[in-house]
Amino acid sequence: MKPILSICITTKNRANYLEETLLSILIQKPSSVEIVILDSSLDNQTRSLIEKLNLLDPIFKYIKNEKLNLDEGYDEAVMNSNGLYCWLLPDDDIIIEESINIILNNIALDYDLILLNLECYNKEMTLSLKQNLKHSENDLFFSKNDLNNFLSEMGILMSYIGSIVIKKSIWLSKPRVSYFGSWFVHVGVILSSDEINRIIYISEPLIKYRCGNSSWTAKSFEIWYIKWPELIWSFSNFNEVIMNKVAPKESWNSLFKLIKSRAMGEYDYNIYKKFIKSNTNSSRNILLLLISKLPVLILNSLLIIYCSIFRRDYKFTIYNLVMSSPNNTLSLTLTKIFFLKLI
């Protein structure tokens, strides 16, 4: 029987996390679902894991290709899938009980695109950080006649690839190569499609997101401050005010954002030289240069103390500051002093 849903995962050298992800799927997987794994690992641990799990439930389609980047990997997984719909899932997050049934029930209603919410957890998946991608009491619905509202409401949510369940035919309907290397090929596919007519956003979180474990941490500044705005602004059919809300062209001009980025070790002098120096006036340049030189540990510690005292509900931000600190022990100590219940 042809599967209704293909869960497409691309992974690289993270077999330990992938096993948790796959077990959370297998415990609730009906026969109408297949799992496609695109493995670009440099070791054989992932292959061994899939071989072991296939003995329990032979539903995995395994593809080994060490040369593909993230965007190419997901595209390859979709092309090799057999389902009518594809769910693009990261290799380290966990799906919540009954998630697959909820998705299948909405697939039965013939939506072209289904968007999912998540709840953020610490790296060990033992503590909720009380953070969703989008807060909404009810499910939301969109159509092709409401694209600007769709981008305004769903733009940031779509940046997380695990939120995407899409008809395979729509994914394949147009070339994707121009979006390879953007880190957001799925957003490019969605925003360029003229075949997406009916969209639902399921407000109930269906995914447990593992914070502090991103495989792209070293490229965070370039991805969020350069690549993301470039992609969103490459489309001319959206209102500029809305595009600026979703992806400001020069968000690094916000001193608060830049200081936070420096405190998390994302922004440094090399980033300043490569992306910022030639794009600002001389007086602004001096300030942005100085921020790139601020001591990360001191800045990180000060922000942890500030948020722990004055922004105690910012658990997600505090946790990410702790996880990005050059001295994790010091950061944990500061957090426990000022905010005992976070860790």
Give a quick set of tags describing it:
343 residues, alpha/beta, Spore Coat Polysaccharide Biosynthesis Protein SpsA, Chain A, ten-stranded mixed sheet, 15 helices, 10 strands, 44% helix, 17% strand, globular
How would you describe this protein?
- With 343 residues, the chain is of the alpha/beta class.
- The chain folds into two domains: 5-210, Spore Coat Polysaccharide Biosynthesis Protein SpsA, Chain A; 217-338.
- The chain is built from 15 helices and ten strands.
- Strands 1, 2, 3, 4, 5, 6, 7, 8, 9 and 10 form a ten-stranded mixed β-sheet that branches.
- The longest helix has 15 residues, at 296-310.
- The model has no long low-confidence stretch (mean pLDDT 92).
Structural class: alpha/beta
What is the annotated CATH architecture of the largest domain? Alpha-Beta Complex
The top-level CATH class of the largest domain is Alpha Beta
Low-pLDDT runs: none
Spell out the CATH superfamily of the largest domain.
Answer: Spore Coat Polysaccharide Biosynthesis Protein SpsA, Chain A
> In what range is the share of β-strand residues?
15-25%
Order of helices and strands: EHEHEHEEHEEEHEHHEHHHHHHHH
C-alpha end-to-end distance: 46 Å
Indicate the radius of gyration in whole angstroms: 21 Å
Tell me roughly what share of residues is in helical segments. 40-55%
Strand segment tally: 10
What is the overall pLDDT average?
A: 92
Number of helices: 15
Number of spatially distinct domains: 2
Main β sheet profile: 10 strands, mixed
